[in-house]
Design brief:
By secondary structure, the chain is α/β, with parallel strands linked by helices. It is built from 13 helices and 15 strands. It binds iron/sulfur cluster (2 copies). One iron/sulfur cluster (SF4) binds next to α12.
Length: about 400
């Protein structure tokens, strides 16, 4: 079997029987769950970036997690579901996230919700960027990991799907530090790919039944696609996911990083796909096009570097506060790794001199007041590419 095969199947609703049938159909071309042995402890790394009702499309849907739990338990495995949201990594925060995200549905199906909040240090000599990193210790208790992500637009990476979901292996409060360590999106993407390579989940499944478009990954709008994707290769899955929503794979830094390492092809046409994927192509999906695909990389002379710097300043996306929506809660100030946001007269103010464009503020603003602002030049250059703000 081709380890890079991606399967895609219809899954129109989150009804339990529909989800279970779709999961079986998606996994079947990949050999199903025959690798699961009785007594195995399987960890499902969900996307629980924030506590939110499932219909907001921020988190992996609990009915799908419950369906996978039932399939794994039928093979004799025990199941633990975990993630590290962008917040304190402790029982109080996680219990709230589990409750808001209705993870009790998966618990009722027999899954354990992770309550091991230990942190571990790792060294990976093969890594390109993340040779030393700290991760959530619960992963060590698992014999195998399944990455169950959600298809969403993303401020910094354009796409949040399989590869990006592994950033949740980093404890929540340390995530801004990683943004600060890797301010260049290409380096950040390489760090994500390092995490994927280090943890190597056995399987990657993507909830694209209701995806998120627009101001993702936490404040966008739900968008029905009606599909489930699965693969043993996270980057191949992401190439298909990106293509479905109208991104060219090279516009997604994690895919570009994976292509540089020869981990996946750079077009959906070069993938082996099981399923009628073209029926799921979106023509009006609102994406946040990453600035990287436009940035100039040439210019080795002093003059060339100056021109490159000016051009890239004109093209870069920036965080921008929608003052009328800002409630002055200070969450963006608290999470900003560059400490460049202050609250004045109950509104967030960004000192742009120190901004590293990590978009943590946009990701964690609870009311969607922090947006990704694209420069007029960048908008002009991508006019006609559809769906991009
Ligand atoms: S997190 Fe959002 S609402 Fe809160 S201060 Fe920042 S921009 Fe305003
Ligand atoms: S202002 Fe926002 S984008 Fe800029 S460094 Fe702070 S969190 Fe990152």
């Amino acid at each position: 079997m081709n380890p890079n095969l991606v399967s895609i199947v219809p899954c129109e609703t989150y009804a339990p029987d529909v989800c279970e049938a779709a999961l079986k159909a998606a996994l079947e071309p990949l050999g199903g769950l025959l690798w699961v042995r009785p007594g195995m402890r399987v960890g499902i790394k969900a996307n629980l970036v924030a506590g939110a009702k499932p219909d907001r499309a921020i988190t992996t849907h609990p009915v799908l997690l419950a369906a996978l739990t039932r399939l794994l338990k039928a093979r004799g495995a025990s199941v633990v579901i975990g993630d590290s949201p962008g917040n304190l990594y402790n029982a109080a925060v996680l219990n709230r996230v589990y409750s808001l995200s209705e993870l009790s549905i998966a618990e009722e199906a027999g899954a354990e919700l992770n309550r091991d909040f230990s942190e571990k240090d790792a060294y990976d000599g093969h890594a390109v960027q993340a040779k030393r990193f700290t991760y959530t210790g619960w992963l060590d208790s698992c014999d195998a990991i399944i990455n169950f992500c959600k298809l969403k637009s993303h401020g910094m990476m354009s796409l949040s799907a399989a590869a990006k979901n592994l950033f949740g292996t980093i404890p929540g409060t340390m995530k801004p530090e990683y943004h600060y360590r890797f301010p260049n999106p290409n380096d950040f993407a390489d760090m994500i790919v390092d995490l994927d390579e280090h943890f190597r989940p056995v399987l990657h499944i993507c909830d694209a039944v209701t995806a998120m478009e627009g101001n993702g990954p936490t404040q966008g709008k739900p968008k029905h696609i009606g599909a489930l994707l699965a693969s043993k290769n996270p980057h191949c899955l992401d190439v298909l996911a990106a293509t479905l929503i109208g991104l060219t794979p090279s516009e997604v830094p994690t895919i570009a990083a994976a292509v540089r390492r020869d981990l996946c092809p750079d077009t959906a046409e070069a993938l082996e796909i099981d399923g009628d994927w073209k029926t799921f192509l979106q023509t009006d999906f609102e994406i946040i096009r990453n600035r990287n695909s436009l940035l100039f990389v040439g210019g080795r002379t002093v003059f060339g570097k100056a021109v490159r710097g000016m051009m890239n300043t004109c093209l870069e996306s920036k965080p921008k506060v929608k003052k009328s929506a800002c409630v002055g809660c200070g969450k963006c100030r608290d999470i900003c790794p560059a400490h460049t946001i202050s609250i004045r007269e109950k509104k967030a103010v960004i000192d742009r001199r120190h901004c590293i464009k990590c978009f943590c503020c946009q990701e964690f603003c609870p009311v969607g007041a922090m947006r990704v602002h694209r420069s007029p030049v960048a908008k002009l250059l991508t006019r006609g590419k559809g769906g991009s703000k």
